[in-house]
Amino acid sequence: MMNSNQPFDVHKYTGWIFDLDNTIYPEASGLFSQVSDRMTLFIQNLFDLDRDAALIRQKELFHRYGTTASGLMKEYGMDPAEFMAFVHEIDLSELSYDAELDERIGALPGQKVIFTNGTTRHATRILDAYGIRHHFDYVYDIIESQHRPKPDPVIYREMLDRTGLDAKTAVMIEDMAVNLKPAAEIGITTVLLKQNFDGAEKGIDTTHVDFIAHDLKTFLRQV
């Protein structure tokens, strides 16, 4: 595990904030590719586009608004419920109980929460598939945030208020560096999960990142 300046002392912390997609499950699992493909298909059907044109629109909305759903809401007045239900109906048949993940998350001291731009239903399906749902006290999802996605700074404070976590003794684990910046600004310790990470990768700003690891289980093995 790479870190900016100090070893990771697990006993300093009383709260653990986990992203969901490409964090609870590794990027290499391909699960988020299923979600992305279903987003593209939804846009194809909604606007009668071919796949390439739909993918371009999907990415434009994501980069402009933080999530594709937010873009569809703001630019087209779409009710997000149908979209969220459609894109999260992914095949989880390849997932099964993960004893190591169960043990290592259970060994972390204090409260554990999920903080996701997805839905609670999507989160609980993943957590149930791995057999780790019982470790999590709260899921703060995109519906609770009123469809304001990370990295909107307002929802980080709101998530802390709802969960009762203390920023100064909390850790946030996430696969997107941009989503860790508001966390760092309010005193949360930040962990970036990046497979095949190069410190200069595409100019990603990691000045607000305290620790970097390959994936969640790699990080947990080292703390």
Task: Tell me what you see in this structure.
By secondary structure, the chain is an alpha/beta fold. It folds into two domains: 2-25 and 96-222, 3-Layer(aba) Sandwich (Rossmann fold), CATH 3.40.50.1000; 31-87, DNA polymerase, domain 1 (Orthogonal Bundle), CATH 1.10.150. Helices cover 43% and strands 12% of the residues. The chain is built from nine helices and seven strands. The protein has helices spanning 31-47, 51-65, 68-76, 80-87, 99-107, 120-130, 153-163, 177-185, 216-222; strands spanning 2-3, 15-18, 111-115, 138-140, 170-174, 189-193, 211-213. Strands 1-7-6-5-2-3-4 form a seven-stranded mixed β-sheet. It is globular. The termini are close together.
Number of helices: 9
From N to C, what is the helix and strand string? EEHHHHHEHEHEHEEH
- Helical residue percent band: 40-55%
Tell me the CATH topology of the largest domain: Rossmann fold
Number of strands: 7
How many individual domains?
2
Tell me the major beta sheet: 7 strands, mixed
- Say which CATH homologous superfamily of the largest domain is assigned: HAD superfamily/HAD-like
* CATH class placement of the largest domain: Alpha Beta
Rg for CA atoms? 17 Å
Residue-averaged pLDDT: 92
- Name given to the CATH architecture of the largest domain: 3-Layer(aba) Sandwich
What distance lies between the first and last C-alpha atoms, to the nearest angstrom? Answer: 9 Å
Q: Class by helix and strand content?
A: alpha/beta
Shape: globular
